[in-house]
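Need tokens for this chain, all 266 residues.
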Amino acid sequence: MSSTSSSPSRLGAWIAIGVGASYFLIPLIATFEFSMRMLRGEYSFEAYRVVFTDPLFQATFGYSIMMAVITIVVGVLLVVPTAYWVQLRLPKLRPLVEFITLLPLVIPAIVIVFGYLRIFGSNSWIPLTGNERATDFLLVCSYVTLSLPYMYRSIDTGLRTIDVRTLTEAAEVLGAGTFTILFKVIFPNLRSAILSGAFLTFAVVIGEFTMASLLSRPAFGPYLQLVGANKAYEPSALAIMAFMITWASMGLIQVFGRNAKNAVKQ
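Here are the structure tokens for all 266 residues:
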């Protein structure tokens, strides 16, 4: 009776998975197939070769990787102490902090960057658009804001899995100060959570377009738009590469998350 009743639901589940997979994979396969047709009459990786040898691709991709790494470092140094302090000393502020960290998801990126330009423009009290280094700093601040929901969620989840109060009290009994507790006790126990937030931040920053474009910085997102507007096959190759970077980040999150669960069980 149970096997007879479960068969239709199992079939429906497989149909739903098949429809969802088709919706996602068919356009991706078509894009990959099109990217292989740059040379007339044969399949090749010529579009990928052209992209990889383009000096502008190398410059913009390297710039975005550098911005992503700096954003990750700044984000971790900002979020870990904040989430730690909220969990340990100010638990009543958790709803307010969570609300603030969710704001970048509901406020469009173009609104955030226009706000930055209005506050930190060349005619403001704190001009940060007057030279390249200052604008890079403003772009990193924009990326930190944009990635805040993902970084905070990852680290807050990690903090919930460890006994922060016991670890802190034990370290204080041994004479450790706040700085030592954070960097020698809390950070090592949040390694997997920090890496998950770092990979999510990397995936967000590497293809971001709006902020980099409006701040006129040579990032990978504006390069994708430039190539897409002027060429045929290279944009398809770049789209596949962007998907691969995102999937690699998601896969690494799964690997580190699984290792953390196994470590907790042991």
